[in-house]
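Hi all, long-time lurker, first post. I run a small reading group and we've been trying to get comfortable going from sequence to structure in the token notation. Rather than ask abstract questions, I figured I'd post a concrete chain and ask someone more experienced to write out its structure so we can walk through it together at our next meeting. Sequence below, copied exactly:
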Amino acid sequence: MDKPKAIEIFLERVEQLTHLPFVTNDEMNTLYGEEMPAVLDKLARINDDNRFCQDCQSRCCPAVRCEFYAPQFNSCPIFELRPPICRLHYCHRFFTDRDTLLKDMSDVFFDSLIKADSLGINKVKFFDAPPLIHCCPELIESTKDWIESVRNGTLDPEEARLLIMQETKKFRPTFPLSTLE
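-- Answer (accepted) --
Happy to help. Here is the structure in token form:
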């Protein structure tokens, strides 16, 4: 992975954000460059083969106090559009022969945030999540009743997931995601 190039791309794009971006793996190329989706796809295949996240027993989401977490959901209700920090988090179970891949990805993510912060780019604060309340309070406010209803058993998790995804789509990045400019 070309780490300096990925960081440079991030620094060019971060100022265009209006809130924490909710993106797909493929759209991560806009924030970090063309190599990031391939790395994420490779890690997803490793995860699928080894069932790290599926068998996790929800350790990560409650630990970071993600407001979208409810044990009744089979997985993250915004999995397809989760923010970069969630896409780039891999627990200790991933660290074996993949250490270089994970280290490079981690370096790109954290070094880009450190560099942006050192340059006074205030939008880097969007990436200090979860919890998400600090970077997109409107989204959390508009979804909290659905999540609470799932937790107390009065709303079907799949119905809530669809509502939450629909609401999250309003928080998509405003810059073009399909191509690097």
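A couple of things your group might point at:
The mean pLDDT is 84.
The chain has one domain: 3-171.
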